[in-house]
Design brief:
With 288 residues, the chain is an alpha+beta fold. 34% of the residues lie in helices and 25% in strands. The chain has 5 helices and 12 strands. It has helices at 2-16, 39-63, 76-111, 121-128, 141-155; strands at 18-24, 31-38, 176-179, 190-193, 199-201, 206-214, 218-224, 229-239, 246-247, 252-256, 267-274, 277-279. Strands 3, 4, 5, 6, 7, 8, 9, 10, 11 and 12 form a 10-stranded antiparallel β-sheet that branches. Strands 1-2 form a two-stranded antiparallel ribbon. It starts with a helix and ends in a 9-residue tail after the last strand.
Length: 288
Amino acid sequence: MAKKEKRARKIKKKLLHKYRLVVLNEDTFEERFSFKLNRLNVFVFSTIFAFFLIAVTTIIIAFTPLREYIPGYSSTSLKQKATDLAYKTDSLQQELAINEQYLASIRKVLTGDVKTVDFNKDSIIAAAQVDASNVNLTPSKQDSLLREKVAREDKYNPLTDSGDLNVVFFAPVKGTISQAYDVKEKHYAVDIVTVKDAPVKAVAEGTVIFAGWTPDTGYVIIIEHVNNIISAYKHNASLNKEQGELVGAGEVIATVGNTGELTTGPHLHFELWSDGHPIDPTNFIDFE
C-alpha cells in the first residue's frame, strides 16, 4: 500500500514539476522570452488542440465546398448535373435517329428508290360482289368492349383530332403531260411541258423540307403537307423558297426550267407521295 502511494506521489510530482522554456538570440544569447510549464499543462494543451483540429476538420467537410475535393466524395449538385446531362444526351440520340430516318426517306424520294404497293384486283372485284345482307356485321362482345375502351381513352386525348383533314390540290403549272405516271417503268411522277420560266406554284400549304441542287434533277424543291403528303418539283430554273419556310396553297415557289442531266427540254417533273408511297397526281389534279 505504501509503495502504491509512493508511486502516485512520484507520478504527481512529475506531472506538476515545473520547467522553464527560454528562447535566446543565437548571436547575443539575449533572452527573448520565456514561460513556465509542466507536463500536465502540455498534455492538457495537446488534448485541447487535437479536439480543436478535429472539430475544425469536421466543420470544413460538412459545411463547405472543400469536401468535394475528398476522393470518393461527390456533391448533390454534381450528381444533379450528371443526371441532367444523361437525359439530354439520350434525347439528342433519339432526335438524331429520327432525323437520320427522315433524311433517308427524303433521299429515297429524290432517287426514286421506293417500293410500290401491289394488290390483287380480282380480290377487290370478288369482295364487291359479296351480298352485304348475308354478312354478319353484329359486333362481338370483345369488339364492343374494345371500342368502348378506346372511346374513353380518346375522349380526353389532346392529340386526337375529331375532324377529318381534307386537302384540295392546286395545279403547280398548266400545260401538256409529256410523260404520265407509270409504276412499271418506275416513273413515279408526271412531266408537264409548259413555257420556260413559267411560275411553279405550291399545290397546297405546307413546309419546305428541301430546296437545293441535284446533278440529275437540277433545282429541286420538296414540300411537306398535312396527312404525311409530300410534293416534289424538279428541273426548275430557279427556286424562290428556302428550306424551313412555310408556303401557302398556290404560292409561287420556283420557275420552270431545264436543269439537271435527266431532262430534254423545259418542263416540270412533279411527284406526289403519301405515307412514303407514290401516288398518281392526275387522280387529284387537272394539269390542262
